[in-house]
Design brief:
CATH topology: Sufe protein. Chain: A
Helix content: 40-55%
Structural class: alpha+beta
Largest sheet: 4 strands, antiparallel
Number of domains: 1
Number of strands: 4
Distance between the termini: 65 Å
Mean pLDDT: 86
Low-confidence stretches: none
Number of helices: 3
Order of helices and strands: HEEEEHH
Strand content: 15-25%
CATH class: Alpha Beta
Length: 129
């Protein structure tokens, strides 16, 4: 087989592996988010930039008073990232997370992700303004 064909085959194989790993990561995160539903109303947010330091994803479960009862974040490198417990936001109110005040222990991307999740909760739950 000529060298250009081998190169093309390797690129296509790599792309297919990447698609498969991305699918598995997505399904794993969705399963973990589904498990959060038992802890309350779930809202997911993202923060950061795709090509500048990566993105952060956070899924927060809120009770009827807008307090975070459970949370996970997608943490790791590329398609090997998996969800992990996100204890830094437990017990905080959605109104605190929507505000501009910093939350100790959160990176800028994580802060953007929890802010977006709290804002999306407010848009979907008018009683929590």
């Amino acid at each position: 087989m000529p060298t250009p064909m081998l190169l093309l085959a390797a690129v296509v194989a790599g792309w297919l592996v990447q698609l498969w790993l991305t699918y598995r990561q997505s399904m794993s995160f969705n399963d973990d988010v589904r498990r959060l539903r038992g802890a309350g109303t779930v809202s997911v947010g993202s923060g950061g930039r795709r090509y500048r330091g990566g993105r952060a994803f956070a899924a927060l479960a809120f009770d009827e008073h807008g307090v975070v009862t459970d949370a996970i974040q997608l943490k790791g490198f590329t398609t090997f990232a998996r969800s992990r417990r996100f204890t830094e936001v437990l017990g905080l109110k959605a109104s605190q997370l929507r505000g501009e005040r910093e939350v100790p222990g959160l990176s800028t991307k994580q802060r953007e992700a929890v802010r977006q999740a709290a804002e999306l909760l407010r848009q979907g739950q008018p009683a929590l303004h």
